[in-house]
Amino acid sequence: MRVNKEQVVLSKANIASTPNRVLVLRLFLTHNNTTLSLGDILNFLCFAEKSTIFRTLQLFEAKEILHSVVSVDGIKNYALCTQDCIVDNHTHLHGHLKCKECSLMFCTPMVSLPVFETRLGVKIDKVQIIANGTCKDCNQVAYQ
Ligand SMILES: [Zn+2]
Ligand SMILES: [Zn+2]
Ligand SMILES: [Zn+2]
Predict the structure, then answer these.
(1) Which of 2, 3, 43, 131 has the most neighbouring CB atoms within 10 Å?
(2) How many separate domains does the chain show?
(3) How many A from CA of 99 to the centre of ligand 2?
(4) Residue 57 above 90 pLDDT?
(5) How far is the CA of 23 from the centre of ligand 3 (A)?
(6) Boundaries of domain holding 113
(7) What is the pLDDT of residues 83-125, one digit of tens each?
């Protein structure tokens, strides 16, 4: 039996391979460092059931195949976890860039993460940084 890349990722995460899971994962693998929302995915997989895809995204995030970032309009966007996800505590040492031209959001490396003061009793669960700007492709078009 031919084993594809999607099945390798799923079996590493101890997730059973189903047609929907393979299709969702394939979308993320072909979109590299671009984030996709539930709506984006349903546009690609228009035959799929919304609740199934929603559960698949939740599962992938719980199993650390995907990470998520909530954009300013409240929409949860997902992207593939890569080698910059530290295995131990799964910290994402990157921010996300929201492109004003194509309105896509991309995983973007950062030099360092800000460190929050926690002495006053606050507890930080997750830091997410979204930069506004222009992505590489749109930038090239603008300066040609
Ligand atoms: Zn991750
Ligand atoms: Zn762009
Ligand atoms: Zn990311």
Answers:
(1) 131
(2) 1
(3) 5
(4) yes
(5) 20
(6) 5-142
(7) 666 656 677 778 999 999 999 999 998 888 788 888 889 988 8
